[in-house]
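Annotated sample (chain length 478).
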Amino acid sequence: MATPITPVILSGGSGSRLWPVSRKLRPKQFLPLISEDRTLFQSTLERLDGLVDKQPAIVVCNEEHRFMVAEQLQGIDQANQGILLEPVGRNTAPAVAVAALCLLDKTGQDPVMLVLPADHVISDVTAFQQAIVQACSLAEDGYLVTFGITPLSPETGYGYIEQGAPITGFDNAWQVATFAEKPTVETASAYLAGGKHLWNSGIFMFKASTFLHELETHRPEILEACKKSFKQAQHDMDFIRLDAASFHACPSDSIDYAVMEHTRHAATVPLNAGWNDVGAWSAVWEVSERDAANNVLRGNVMTHDAGNNLVFTEDRLVTLVGVDDLIVIETKDATLVAHKSKAQDVKRIVTALEAEGRSEAIIHRLVNRPWGCYDSVDAGERFQVKRITVKPGAKLSLQKHHHRAEHWIVVKGTAEVTCDDKIFLLTENQSTYIPLGSVHRLANPGKVPLELVEVQSGSYLGEDDIVRLEDQYGRNEA
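Output written by the structure step:
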């Protein structure tokens, strides 16, 4: 019997170069950037369907993204072996280490781990799965496998893998001679001409025990911190909350630096499957369907005499006339206009926004919550207007506010309202008033989404003016 393959999905990236659509609290992996009905995270899981001996995945993500992960898994009917919650990002080596520890503890077996970033695009699923099968036999034999992408151009944004000698007894597999950092254009051109270098995809395959042994050999302090964090983790349904103090103390390092560059058992399998890491808007343009003028257009867009552009719009009509090679991204609270050749520099805007403490770097105007979402429609001195959507059967926390009162107007569906000692129903076109300081809750007892308009008024309207008395989602934050 073959060793079972367990996907380990790494979902901790921030995707700052895909701002303003990708933001800290809803980064690119959880967005439908290429397919309009599947996020990158969901596509990563679905391209594994049909693999023999594939087990349910284990997911490693930021604690702030836990409900998005759970909801997106449910949305494509994917079982899982656990959602590991990182209290802080510590790069890929600790993330994979806690996943390996979890799998050994949970299954009592020593599975082959297929480590996959959640934000890649792979167009040829058949070729991808064939490469996985080839790599699995190497992993079973004690190798740590990295998948190398045959380079198509002298790309300076990727690390490179130099192929060494072929590995006897295995098809299409080579020892790794060296790993190389992101090169200059001249060096990358030499790599391309030499024919022995591959792009480093960031996809790996190895047995759980093999990785932990190599990590203990080369970075024992990382393994020790991960063991402490996992041993003291709290389990909450599918969520496994790593111990914050132990994980904060863990050194931050990548799989490449911590293990792959030092091990004597590194192997590479070439992967020619239409891979793209979707690292910037220019990459989204490359992998998306284009019109006759080579434009990628999504949303309410019109063009005239314009070509090679990428235009995404969430809300307003966007028009382009007589321009080429532009990236135009419109959201409800921010607009990006950039030349396609400068797509990598978008993260500089995000850095500047963060330095100024601007919310546009962190959160969208439309904010997702485990119970639904809200859209901040308007705000001014001492007032704020939100459109709130509550999923069928969901309810907000039992709470109160010290600084604001609220008016609720039901637009669609039925609301169950708790206000102090009263519980009552509201239907379409009905409204109620929640006085400052009242203990209240909003719930949707119906079978269709509940939509309502909330008008807040008071001296302070921040999301941190919420005192939660009871919450079914185990939250302490807004």
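Annotation: The longest helix spans residues 92-107.
Annotation: The chain has a mean pLDDT of 94.
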